Amino acid sequence: MVIFITGASHTGKTLFAQRMLEKYRYPYLSIDHLKMGLIRSGMTALTPEDDDELTDYLWPIVREMAKTAIENRQNLIVEGCYIPYTWRGDFEADYLDDIRFICLAMTDEYIDSHFAEIRSHASDIEERLEDSDCTIRHLKEDNRAYLRGFLEAGEKVTVIDGSYERAIAGLLEETVRDCGPESSDIAEGTARGPENGALAEEFSRRLEINGIEVDAHYSLKTVREVLLPLLEKLTKLQKEKGRRLLVLVAAPPGAGKSTLCSFLELLSSEVPGLTKTQAVGMDGFHRRQEYLTTHTVMHGGQEIPMVRIKGAPVTFDLEKLTAKVKELGGGGLCGWPAYNRLLHNPTENAVTVTEDIVLLEGNYLLLDEPGWRELSGHADYTIFIRADEALLKARLRDRQEKSGKTREEAAAFVEFSDLPNVRLCLEHSKNADLMLVLDKNGEPAAAGNGI
Question: How far apart are the first and last CA of the chain?
Fold first, then answer.
């Protein structure tokens, strides 16, 4: 994210940039420092008084620095008065999605009633060596020019006409809200200790998955290098197709697919420029408990009630799932079932699918077996999450212990019920458009050629 902060002289743009830097740790580029460095180094014959010529000279440099920061997915605050009124025309739409523009200007009335105060704060952030041109007349002319120029260009201008501190505080809050997690939450991520003892910044969110609150934790590196690029890719695909984008996310039990998809849904709503996604699961297509308790299946050479292997492919209503996947891809509002862990049964139309990107997650969505293998033909993009069996086994045992089972009961349940499904997914799933591989800490990374 790049934040341009401009405005007339003495409006506090440098103070605002400094507060952004201190609170949210965004790198900060002063165009005035760039100007003086070029002038004092002899790189230009221009002088500090050549305002119009300096804008023409400095803006191409600043513009390309901003583009570089965006391409590298880096945050940057750019502050100064050498931003042209028509700056927006120098960026393509993909860049503009990652730019926030702030312009400060004061009204004549504010200057008249606060002139002494304005002068007294002139050197709050930087020592002004020369400030003789700070007169009421000059300030009014400068502020009027900025107001007129940027308003005529269609830009929003923050007009200071009352309490300066209140205006700046409100603007700071608005900027942080608009920038989403790339500002406050990511910048202020908490630290955790991986196995190697190093500290890694972490981005955390509390999610609700199937009616249960779950704390999701991903490193900032994963968010910046995997999750945001994935959402950007899906946004681009959806805009190209001009309709709902259906994404299948398949993974073995214990790989964290539900958490990942719910996290991506939240992230897409917080980061400007991304098309909102909606996460739904295939758990709502479990056959009903009364069916599973009254039907049997061969397992391990013996006939057992289906309920004993609930979660295996045979315990899902594949025909119903296929019909709903087709409906989902058709666009428009779509009722979707969810699994109720208290009732141990699906609840019909528990959610309504409304968004233009839908993440459908489940264990067997890419299963290479009759009936299942046809599902991916209705999707626009597919993702498979792979993990080491030992990691999945440990996570599944932990899940069962947290549900109240003893260590021995958890181990027996996982061995009998979960591990056959894990191996089925790992060994008999179709290739996906994108493979994510979990590391030993459970962080997903893109395999192969990446995203």
Answer: 20
Please give the Cα distance from 103 to 99 (Å, whole number): 13
H helix intervals, 288-429: 289-292, 318-329, 389-402, 407-413, 419-427
Report the C-alpha gap between 108 and 12 in whole angstroms.
16
Nearest to 255 by CA among 396, 382, 372: 396
* Domain spans of the chain, in order of start: 2-186, 203-446
- What is the Cβ-side half-sphere exposure of residue 181, based on CA atoms within 13 angstroms? 22
CA–CA distance, 358 with 385 (Å, rounded to integer): 17
Q: What is the pTM of this model?
A: 0.58
CA atoms of 406 and 232, how far apart (whole Å): 43
Domain 2-186 falls under CATH 3.40.50.300: yes
Tokens of 240: 């190209």
- Give per-residue pLDDT as tens, 326-360: 999 888 899 999 988 767 899 999 999 999 999 99
CATH topology of domain 203-446: Rossmann fold (3.40.50)
